[in-house]
Structure formats: C-alpha cells, structure tokens
Amino acid sequence: MNPAPPRLDLLRLPLLGAFLRWRHARTALQGVLLAVAVLVVVDGFWGPPQPSRNAAGTLPWVQWRGLVVVALLGVGNLFCMACPFMLPRRLAKRWSRPARPVPSWLKGKWAAVVVLAVFFWAYEALDLWASPAWTAWVVIGYFVMAFAVDALFRGAVFCKHLCPIGQFHFVHTPLSPFEVAVRDVDRCASCATKDCIRGRWTPGTSGAQHEVPLQRGCELWLYQPRKVGNLDCTFCMECIHACPHDNVGILSRTPGAELTVDPVRSGVGRLGQRSDLAALAAVMVFAALVNALGMVQPFVRLQERVAEQMGVGTGSVLAGALLLTLVALPGATIAAAASWERTVTRTASQWRRFVWGWVPLGLSMWAAHHLFHFVLGSSALRPLLSRLTSAAPAAAALPAATAMEVPTWVFAVQCALLTGGLLWTLHLLGRIGRDACAERHGAAAVLPWRLVALLLFLISIWLLAQPMEMRGALGG
After folding, report:
1. Distance between CA atoms of 430 and 456, rounded to whole angstroms?
2. pTM of the full predicted structure?
3. From residue 16, how far is each of 22, 84, 251 by CA, in Å?
C-alpha cells in the first residue's frame, strides 16, 4: 500500500508559520478586528445615517461577509480565530473564573438554531443593513453577551452553543482545505498529560477550580487525538500552544471528505445521531436562499402588500415568512426525502447525514449572493475610506450618490459558483450514500436528496436572476 502523501502544515511555512506559532498571534489578529469593531460602533452612532456612506452599513454587511466565504474556502475558520468578541470573554474568564457546567437546556445546537432564526428575522425586520445605529447596537450586544455568558459557565459556551456567526462557520468549515490536527497519532498515545484538552496549570493545582491556567487547552472539548475535521473548531490554537510535544499543526486535507464518513468525533459525537446538527445545517442551507429572497424586489413588494391587506407590520409578515421558509419548508422537504429513502431501502433513513451533503450548494449560494453585494459595495468603499481619513467635515466629504449598474459578468460568475456547488453536493451525496447505506441501496437512497439539491439549484438561479436591492452600493 502506498504511503499517504505528506500534508502541508501552515505552521511549518516560513514567516507565516512563525507568526502563527507566536503565543500572541491570535491576540494581535483580534486587536485588528477590535479596532474595526470600534470604528463600526463609533461611525454607526455618529456617522452619516446613509448606510452606504457609513462604516456600520458597509463593512459588516458587505465586505466582511464576502471575505468570510473566501477565508472558509481558501483556508478555514480564520474569522473565529481573529474574533474580537473573544477579548472580553478572556477578561470574563480571568475575572469570574467560572466553574459552572453548561446547563442541559443549552447543550447541543438547538439553542443556536433558535438564535440563528431570530438573527435572520432581526436582520430583515429591523433593516439592520440599512441602520448604522442598529448595527452598532448589535456589535455592542455581541461584546456584552460574550462576556456575560462566558463569565457564568466554564468552557467556550458562547462560541459553541450560541454565537450565530460561529454557527455559520461551523457548518461550512468541513469544506475548508485545512484543519487543526495532530501530526503523529502514535505520539499522542504515549502522552501522559493530555495538555491539549486539559491545558497547563501551575504545578500542584491540576486544574483546580478558581485557578487561572498557564496555558488553556481546548475549551470546546475537542480532544485532538480523537478530533475529526473542523466541526466546532474555532482555530483558537490553544491546543497548538498547550501541546508539550509540538505535535499539533494546521494541516491540509481534502475539503468535504470528513462528511463522507461518520466516526465518533470528540466533542461532537456521530453526525448520524445528531438531529440538532442536521437541523442547523439544513437551516443554513435554506437560509442562503431565504436571505436572497428577502432582497429581491418582487418579494419585497409582495410582503408590503400582504402587510397592508392584513393590517399588520412588515415585521410580522416577515416572521411568518421565515417560520415557513426556515422551519416548515426544510422540515417538509427533509421528511419527504427521508420517506422516499425509507421506501426504497426498507431501513431507517440516514437523513441526518444526507442533509450535510447539501452544504456545498448552500455555501455556493451564499458566495454568489455576497459576490453581488461585494462588487456593488466596492463603489462605496473608496468614498467611505476617503471620508474617514479626511480632515474636512463629514458632509463635505460625501460624494453625490449615483445609480449603480450590475456588471454583466456578475451573473455568469454566480451561475458558475452555483454549478460548482451543485456538482460538489451531488458528489458528496453519492459518497455519503455509499458509506451510510447498503451497497445495493446506495444509489436509490441518495436519489431524493440529489433531486432536492437540483431543485434548490434551480430556485437559486431564479432568485439571482431577479432584480435585487443594491444594499451597500452608493445608489442603493
């Protein structure tokens, strides 16, 4: 048998590796994004009210969201690594030294699914993208919640169980080309201290309560020798610094391969037994379409007409639409596909695993949608930077708004992204079917899941072909 090819390790690269191995690398990255967060808050409260001219209206909702997708597909969970909301969390751990375990109602991802749905509702109902002040309050709320939650409970509770941004990353990092992983599993077998999970403590304390560790281990409970892939990993690098044997790296791997098998994963368990994880993945896939739907002009006009006829606010209509599209529709779709699968295989459905096969298509829709706003939002970026760096009064630095036209190549690239996502999804579903089902049933079991993927692909193409609100552009 041919030996496995050597894996690229980012920690072994010159310059980049030295920086990542630096103990304060993550703090330095968090400091940069903290400065950006402060800018967003300050400009959100005291800058121009027009979102396309305000840092709070462009940086979080246009540029940052597009860069997240690029980072996930290019490397991995870089934005969780550099998350500025973890700075107050670190202060909370030092201040309160919490010893409370995670309450049972908060374990798993059901709370995260609810928070995520509320976040999507608030984004549209409160027009967060159009309100710099509301965006500033959201940023402040994030800092407060990260501090409050992690001051109460031990471990990274906010990241693992609540943060909607983190859940977006967790669902899509299985598609990333790098993972934090051990270099030599045999070396871990002989390790007596298990510092990667326990951390390093003052001699004699052995992790005693109310003690501050010299070096924290993984607070998301991902024990490195038994960790599989990127699920729930924030790239915090605590395990890298804690390992006394220098046996943890940031290693290359085949994107998506971790979804084609179902071993017991440290801190996660088996995907085939986690309904909450499958629900989170399904919500994220359907949310990619729903988020675009909320911006197409025909749906916006329909929403306004329904609200007027019913005599209610558009926020109430939107809540009903989200309940239908993010809960009822995914549930009915999964139930129908699972029923078909059970009929042809005469065995229990593997729906908890097949849902994960849709993730590449969902991410391609997020990428295609964000591309539209990223390209148009570039029209506002230069005037924004000019205003922020100008000594002239803000009003004098504002250019006249001009209508933006969508470049003709954008839709072609969007279709290419969606086609690539569909092909990747069809491939993953086939691999999952071969692993999860008996060989004679694999092709038949995967058929309904592939048909749903094709339907979602066609709906995505239709959505992107519709007139869309030019959020973040000077003329939008």
Report:
1. 17
2. 0.89
3. 10, 21, 14
